[in-house]
Design a protein that fits this description.
6 helices, mainly alpha, two-stranded antiparallel ribbon
Length: 201
């Protein structure tokens, strides 16, 4: 069993990416990343190799949708484990349960079920009908998935814009408050100096 495990910051450093990129891929590709008994993500050799493969696919120009389809075998749990993944660490052990399926995972499962139904139908029909059904269903599913991913990306972009605007507004408010404090101190000092001068005269 692999004894080397990375926390997210070390895994990101090893892969030469930011930690938020690994979190983004985990969410978007519905990856099942194990966690320790503290709930922290733990990356073993299997997960590190998967991320390296994802990077290679991205360099080849594959979209996240295409990568997700390729990742499906890596994301499914091992048979006979009832959706539980057990990992041993030196000096400790942790049982990690599968998280509640996200909308993306549900869409992937739906696509797999639909794929099996289509495959069974194709098996019972001629080659020509098979090609027509496969093309029609594939086009429809691809359009639906493209729409869902675009919608998700737009929502993420809008959220980041709002966050950026909030940070800028907060920084501006802090600068204005600091300037007001400096002005108030200057005004008090002038008054003190003026009183002191009048007292001397």
């Amino acid at each position: 069993m692999d004894k080397i495990h990375y926390i997210i910051s070390d895994a990101a450093k090893e892969l030469h990416v930011e930690a938020h990129v690994l979190r983004y891929w985990e969410e978007e590709l519905a990856l099942k990343i194990p966690r320790n008994n503290m709930g922290h993500r733990i990356y073993g050799a299997k997960e590190m190799e998967l991320f390296r493969q994802i990077m290679r696919w991205k360099e080849e120009g594959l979209s996240l949708k295409e990568i997700q389809l390729k990742c499906t075998p890596y994301c499914s749990s091992e048979p006979g484990r009832d959706n539980l993944q057990v990992i041993q660490y030196p000096g400790e052990s942790a049982v990690v349960t599968e998280p509640r399926p996200s909308n993306d995972e549900k869409m992937t499962q739906f696509k797999q079920i639909l794929g099996r139904i289509v495959t069974d139908a194709i098996r019972d029909n001629s080659e020509e009908l098979t090609a027509d059904i496969a093309n029609n269903v594939s086009d429809h599913v691809n359009k639906e998935l493209d729409y869902l991913f675009r919608e998700r990306e737009e929502a993420d972009e809008q959220r980041f814009r709002k966050l950026d605007e909030t940070i800028r507004n907060l920084q501006k408010a802090r600068q204005e408050a600091a300037a007001a404090q400096i002005q108030e101190v200057k005004t008090k000092n002038r008054r003190r100096f003026s009183k002191h001068k009048q007292t001397k005269q």
